[in-house]
Amino acid sequence: MPNKTNDADVAFIKALAELLHENDLTELQVKREYGENDALNVRVSRRTEIVTHVAAPAAPAPGPAHSGYAPAPAPTADAGSVEDPASHPGAVTSPMVGTVYMQAEPGAPSFVSVGDKVAEGDTLLIVEAMKTMNHIPAPRGGTVKRILVEDGAAVEYGAPLMIIE
């Protein structure tokens, strides 16, 4: 005789997988508590590849106008292979899936720009997730070397946001 809880759990997991696919999500995690020592903890994810486009820096605009976003520098000939920003020791990665905002509100100055010195705990940017603005703090002090995301861009969990050295 089939176990009804097991059949219901399998149906639940299949429904989660369908939600993942239909809503173009990369990961879902759910914990169901049935009783004191009876729970189901499910994480459904699909593999995605993060593609980082490297663009040559544009000529700086005259005047003090600055968007706070600086494109990643073009790779040099002696680089040998393309460096994965996520594996850089100074990489700051996204702790969640959401939308990046480089400033507190439209028209306000960016939290940080390339070349800025930051202290541990300083706000680098905001990731909005489910209508909640999450300030992303600097995990360590240093200088912002590269900003790898644009204002308003969608980011995945673990995606590199910037490099601090």
From TrEMBL:
Pathway linked to the protein: Lipid metabolism; fatty acid biosynthesis
Role summary: This protein is a component of the acetyl coenzyme A carboxylase complex; first, biotin carboxylase catalyzes the carboxylation of the carrier protein and then the transcarboxylase transfers the carboxyl group to form malonyl-CoA.
Pfam families with a match to the protein in the record: Biotin_lipoyl (PF00364)
Keyword Transcription: no
InterPro entries in the cross-refs: AcCoA_biotinCC, Biotin_BS, Biotin_Carboxyl_Carrier/Decarb, Biotin_lipoyl, Single_hybrid_motif
GO BP term, example: fatty acid biosynthetic process
Region feature (Disordered): 55-88
Keyword annotations: Biotin, Fatty acid biosynthesis, Fatty acid metabolism, Lipid biosynthesis, Lipid metabolism
Domain Lipoyl-binding: 89-165
Entries under SUPFAM superfamilies matching the protein: Single hybrid motif
Classification via Gene3D superfamilies: 2.40.50.100
A GO CC term assigned to this protein in UniProt: acetyl-CoA carboxylase complex
Domain of life: Bacteria
GO molecular function: acetyl-CoA carboxylase activity
Record-given protein name: Biotin carboxyl carrier protein of acetyl-CoA carboxylase
